[in-house]
Amino acid sequence: MNNKEAIAKILAKQIELKENEILALLEAPSNPELGDIAFPCFKLSSILKKNPIQIAKELESKIKLTKKLEKITATGPYLNFFLEKSNLATEVVKKILKEKEKYGNSTEGKGKTIVIDLSSPNIAKPFGIGHLRSTIIGNSISNIASSLGYKTIKINYLGDWGTQFGKMIVGYQKIGNDKELNKDPIKYMLKLYIEGNKEEYKNEARAWFKKLEDGDVEAIRLWKKFRELSLKDFERIYKILGIKFDCISGESLYNKKMDETIKNLKTKKLLEESEGAWIVNLEKFNLGVCLIQKTDGATLYATRDITTAIDRYNKYKFHKMIYEVGQEQKLHFQQFFKVLELMGYKYSKDLIHVYHGLYLDADGKRFATRKGKTIFMEDILNETINLIKKTIEEKNPNLKSKNEIARKVAVASIIYGDLKNQRTNDLVFDLERFIEFDGNTGPYLEYSYARSSSILRKTKKKIPTNIKSNLKLNESEVALIKKLNDFPEVIKKSYDHLYPNLIANYTYELCQMFNEFYHQTKVLDSENEIFLLALVESFRIVCKKSLYLLGIETVEEM
Ligand code: ARG
Description:
Radius of gyration: 28 Å
Largest sheet: 5 strands, parallel
Distance between the termini: 38 Å
CATH architecture of the largest domain: 3-Layer(aba) Sandwich
CATH class of the largest domain: Alpha Beta
Bound molecules: arginine
Shape: globular
Strand content: 5-15%
Strand order of the largest sheet: 6-5-4-10-11
CATH superfamily of the largest domain: HUPs
């Protein structure tokens, strides 16, 4: 039982509200001097038709103090609880040292599977900055869900099917050259696409995609080559980011099942003919029409997503399926979720489009089109690593494994630069800012963690498991302990809203508090040394874990 639950239990004995109702009302006072946990009396006041100030006053005198509670005061309509700090400190630190990297975990997701569709770049095209967001946010949500006991399945659903391959094949027929293609695949494939996308080849391109869908040997050969080369390229990006998937899938995998979906839709009387094409009319729901099959028989993105969702449910019986995809595809998701609902699949209510905003450049334009040039993700990542390496070389020239450390800190810069923002907002891709070693940045968090490791390396003293804090704690120590105590709640909240930024912001505040503590308190050879070392170790455990939840690997030195 945590402290809030303990207080809810005490209050429940005195008032006409249930424990869980009280729990939902408890909050942290705006100013820590007012107390550690506050109970606002407004709800009770409307039930009892009594003045909330008077209610708070009465409760103040009724509730008895315990070993955990050192003071209770009524402040206006609030009843404020002060926790006994030595007791709190002992409890929190003991718990963290015992549970280690499992601190903050729960079993709420036991036996439940969450499928996460993430990253999902398009073959033969550069890995976009939107795909980077999807990869980072989707991966973090997966880590957060796993820590709450859910079984997560991360699926990279490649955009490896669709009319664009007709265009690519035409481009290849016109200007293609295997040597060039193998030399720098992504850049060259972009050229092929631009060629094949010319208005004059429109019909040829359409015909080639149809051939591909029908299994034409030459079409399949080229498509396979494009897919293989792209995947190799993407894999280098994932390796830098340190990201793994449970399954690499793609739209092409469902090509053979498309007929079944169309038949299914027909049987359920959902398909309508419209100018030779087949659609599901969603006008009634204000969702326009969902195009299922074109006049020439070619299927569409939505048809593939419908088929994929059905297949995934049959395979995983998921509790929830999350699609981490940009907000510009909102309508697409609303449409095919609706179609699945109309088809009678109950699990359609468990599909969630977790969307993100755009990356902008400093002028507020979409990042990818900056100066009209395409920006390659691998180049951005390598540039970031080089910049970080330069700073490390200046600050710590004798550091071992500089390359690996630079990679981790560079990835931390990019991941944290993204995740500190609420995902639904647009944000500026400000690399210069992301890589700063001071301020609200990834390197600052890495640095704080490394600092805690360095303190612990300097001592040979062992931290006992029955750690106890007897001495009076100063303000920064208490603040740090209270922050560490909040961690499990933050994870839970971050999962409930599917907002990794809650953990990101928490980590930053935690590191700030740790640094404040470090400046105010002498740890080594102090009177309270063993307890303070245990506190540093607790910070180190929680910091590592929260960075892990964001998808960031820590470094012991930098
Ligand atoms: N490949 C798509 C794109 O880049 C994203 C796919 C997202 N996942 C899905 N099941 N539709 O736009």
